[in-house]
Amino acid sequence: MGIPTTLPEALSEIERLQEQLERLRAKGSRQDLWSHGSRASVESAEALGALREFAGGIDTLKRQEFFPSLVRRLSSAMRMKHAVVSESITGFRFKTLAVWSDRTFGKAYEGTTVGTPYDDAVIQRGFCSYSSGVSQRFPDHTWLPASDIQSCFVVPLFGSTGLVIGMLSLMDDAPRNMSRDQQALFQLVGACAGVELARQQAEHAMERREAHYRAVLECSTDLVAVTDLTGCVQHLSPSIERAMGCSREILVGREVFNLFHPDDRAGARAALSNLCVSREDDDMRCGAFRLQHHSGAWRMLDVAARIVPSANGSQDSIILMLQEVAAHRRVDEEQSHVLVDLENIMETVPDLMFTLDYQGFLIKWNSRVQQVTGYTAEELRHKPALAFVPLEEYDRTTAAIQQALTEGTAELEGRLLTKDGRLIPYHWTGAALKDSWGHTVGIAGIGRDVTEQKRIESALRANEERYARATAVGKVGVWELDVDKGLYYGDTNLKALFGYGPLDLSTDPAEWLNLVHPDDRTVALSSWAEVSGSLKESFNYELRMIRKDGVTIWTEVRGHAVRDVEGRLTHLIGATVDTTERKQAQDALERSEQQLRTVLDTLPIGVWFTDSRGHVLYGNPAGQQLWSRAKTVGLPDHVSGKLWWEGIDEAESPHRWAIGTIISRDRTVLNETIMIETESGERKTLRNSAVPVRQDDGTVLGALILNEDITDRIQAEEDVHRTRMFLESIVENIPHMIVVKDAKTLELTLVNRAAKMYLGIEQEQLLGKSLYDCFPEHQADMLLEQDHHTLESNSVHDIREHVLDTKHFGARVFSSKSVPIRNGFEPSHLLLISEDITERKRAEEALRESEERFAKAFRSSPHAVVISELQSGKIIDANGAAFQLFSAPGRGIGETINTDRDLWPTASHRDRFVANLCEAGVVRNMEVIVHTRRKEMRHCLMSAELIELHGRRCMVTVCSDITELKRAEEALRQRERDLRSALDERERISQDLHDGILQSLYAVGLGIETCRPYLRRPHMKRVTRALDLAVAQLNAVMRDIRGFISGLETELQHGRDFPAAVRTMVHELAQPHDTRCRVAIDPAATEALTAEQGLHLFSIVKEAMSNSLRHAKAKDASVSLRAVRQGLRLSIRDNGVGFVPSEVVGTGRGLGNMAARANKVGGVFTVRSRPKHGTRIVLDLPREVIHA
Question: pTM of the full predicted structure?
Answer without folding.
Answer: 0.30
